[in-house]
């Protein structure tokens, strides 16, 4: 029997600048499972998108809605269109120097723009244009997870969850850390990918 439930729209953002990384393996497992369970998935592989991650023009920091992102170039507009389309976001990235790689920060700087994902109001209030949407985060690291949580104070996850996602109205459903990757066995990595696939199944089925 064919389900009448609309397909879940999921955008997967790969924040590793090097192709073929374990972040890519994680997202491959996620995408395959999500699609197998009825979700529609679009992928933003930042290692494969040739966009300028830095701007020196203040006018590039604010737009008048999605259509105005056209003036920033096709790559920026296409990524913004995917963000506008999605109802659930998945981020996968490695911990580099306690946070995420520059390419992911550049993505937020160039795509999560005032006038598109948020807008300032009078005083200190603001509109959150992505309210009602959700996110899941996958983090890889060579250090033990407790080291990231305690010594780094969970800097990468916190800086993504609160000043970015929360600020624009996105609720983070879960943060999964895969630690000691450099020392992991094939069996352990396979188990991680199975866990990823199961989380994708849940996300694809969520209402």
Structural overview:
It is a single chain. By secondary structure, the protein is of the alpha/beta class. The protein has a single domain, classed as Flavodoxin domain (Rossmann fold), CATH 3.40.50.360. It has six helices and seven strands. The protein has helices at residues 22-36, 74-85, 102-111, 145-151, 155-168, 186-205; strands spanning 9-14, 40-45, 88-94, 118-120, 126-128, 134-140, 171-178. It has a five-stranded parallel sheet, sandwiched between helices. Strands 4-5 form a two-stranded antiparallel ribbon. Helix 1 (22-36) runs parallel beside helix 6 (186-205). The model has no long low-confidence stretch (mean pLDDT 96). InterPro entries: Flavodoxin_fold (IPR003680), Flavoprotein-like_sf (IPR029039), NAD(P)H_dehydrogenase_qn (IPR051545). Belongs to the NAD(P)H dehydrogenase (quinone) family. Keywords: Oxidoreductase. GO terms for molecular function: NAD(P)H dehydrogenase (quinone) activity. Residues 8-181 form the Flavodoxin-like fold domain.
